[in-house]
Design a protein that fits this description.
2 copies of one chain form a homodimer.
Chain A (H helix, E strand, L loop, with lengths): L2 E8 L4 E7 L4 E7 L3 H4 L3 H9 L10 E4 L13 E3 L4 H5 L3 E5 L3 E5 L2 E5 L5 E4 L2 H12 L4 E5 L4 E7 L2 E8 L1 H11 L14 H11 L6 H5 L2 H7 L8 H17 L7 E3 L3 H14 L3 E3 L4 H12 L5
Helix pairs in contact in A: 4-11, 5-9, 6-9, 6-10, 8-9, 9-10
């Protein structure tokens, strides 16, 4: 099959490139931990080292998505305001000149504002969601891309209508490593019970500030011997994920789709099960599928 | 005036002792940063060094409150279950033998459970609240003791009826120093506007998980130039305090009283003003006043 596109998903801590054939299939793959943090100052070198030897390199178009288009990346790409479709993104592709590879395009991020006018941003997740839509044939839905920052993306009529960031993963890490909550945690095997109890506790009703109160239970339940030391970290994780799930799905009836690596996807599915929410896994390779859609809309790929 | 009592308020990071005369007034004071963390293993020495030279030392009773009675302190004192009055506390005083000072008593902490049965604890704040009641003549009220952990204490008919811990201060520190939210913060002078905006944002309605979302605004408002770099830390602080105030006062009409050092008291009063809540400062020396009440109930002081 003839090489037709190089798609690169370049995030904060990972690099993934795929050589796409004219039928859309993968002819070659390269994955590494050369995320933008460790590649700063040598982006052209990392890219050429990964894909420069592929057949067609230098003649086939290269399209990148992810944090490579952030202020800390190779070149800052715009944020396109929601609602947005692939056709809106291609109007704002950023370009960089890469030795031996020619002009490389970077997919812009998206911006939105919440009900109170506060801005929010995503970069990279828009491409994954566009890919998930293409792979599933859906034109509406709610997607979550969990991680350091969980991104909840709402799609209506084929356009990304809105989204919201929940700092769940990063808050978990900061609380576990840098507050009193980590003191009683032990690396003992988790029973799984801590996670489920945490999810239920996090999802209880109450205002935003009640989270600051419920967190303390991850200490007191340990102090009172009502939660095993090996379960405390999972309780905290469950508390935050349960609170996130309840808030992000409030007022919505439909199922949501998780786009994540298997371990994290399983964690969100388990939490959804505790709360009786309908949660589905996304197809594999969403980022690549989204890059194909965007490249096609840009006339870079047939 | 004749020395009649030595009252010690010994917290995690501070030590405060007062020599009390038979009329209840202070004859001498000693304050230092010898909290239980830095005094571990030499509590007797620190105490003797601070108060051993006072007139009457060795003959007047010594009563201590605060984290000195915790598992990390000199001796772990019990937790007395709410509702509790001074008379309940004196039945569970812990005792340690101090060279030259004789038997030293430690005030127990309090425990309670929230609506879902999760335990909560305080240690030291019970004595301050009992003191605030004695100084004001009140027998009902809502008190907040802000800090690393904000303790909201509810008093009914002269008894401490219930309380709840909000991890506001510690969460603020962990998020500021160990998440992406600290990146855009600058030590530039704050305009004060960031704090007020944060308080209002934190107090908006929404479930517990919405806090994980609103936190991200402390980054995006900075990214979009809609919040000055010098205001971002205050915005985060306001967001957490606003959320705390809204949650802790939900369903209550009455004023609340702040027991805190002046800078922190001012911060909570400003936040209460933004939200239209009725907030009052406590009298000074609440801990000492509470120690007098408890010592009297224990027959240690007339």
């Amino acid at each position: 099959m003839k090489p037709a596109l190089i798609g690169v998903d370049w995030g904060t801590s990972s690099f993934r490139a795929v050589l796409v054939g004219s039928d859309g299939g993968a002819l070659a793959r390269h994955e590494s931990a050369d995320g933008i943090l460790s590649s700063a100052g040598r982006f052209a070198e990392v890219l050429a080292g990964a894909v420069g030897g592929w057949p067609g390199a230098g003649t086939v178009p290269v399209l990148m998505s992810g944090m490579i288009g952030s202020r800390q990346g190779w070149r800052e790409a715009d944020y396109v305001a929601c609602p947005a479709r692939a056709g809106d993104l291609v109007l704002r592709l950023a370009e960089v000149a890469a030795p031996m590879l020619g002009t490389v395009r970077i997919v812009p991020g998206l911006s939105t504002r919440d009900g109170a006018g506060r801005p929010d941003v995503i970069r990279g997740e828009e491409t994954q969601v566009i890919g998930a839509l293409a792979l599933s044939g859906a034109s509406d839905g709610l997607f979550v891309l969990p991680g350091t920052h969980s991104k909840w993306v709402s799609v209506e009529g084929g356009a990304i209508a809105d989204f919201a960031t929940y700092m769940t993963g990063e808050v978990y890490g900061a609380l576990k490593s840098h507050t009193i909550l980590g003191r009683l945690m032990a690396p003992a095997p988790s029973t799984g019970e801590g996670f489920r109890r945490g999810v239920a506790a996090g999802a209880e009703t109450g205002g935003p500030g009640t989270l600051l109160n419920r967190l303390f239970a991850a200490r007191t339940l340990g102090l009172f011997g009502e939660l095993a030391a090996g379960d405390i970290a999972d309780y905290l994780s469950g508390l935050l994920i349960g609170a996130e799930l309840r808030a992000a799905t409030a007022g919505r009836q439909a199922a949501f789709t998780v786009i994540a690596a298997p371990a994290l996807e399983q964690r969100y599915r388990e939490a959804a099960g505790v709360l009786g929410l309908d949660c589905r896994p996304a197809p594999a390779d969403c980022a690549l599928a989204g890059q194909r859609v965007i490249a096609r809309a840009a006339g870079l790929f047939a």
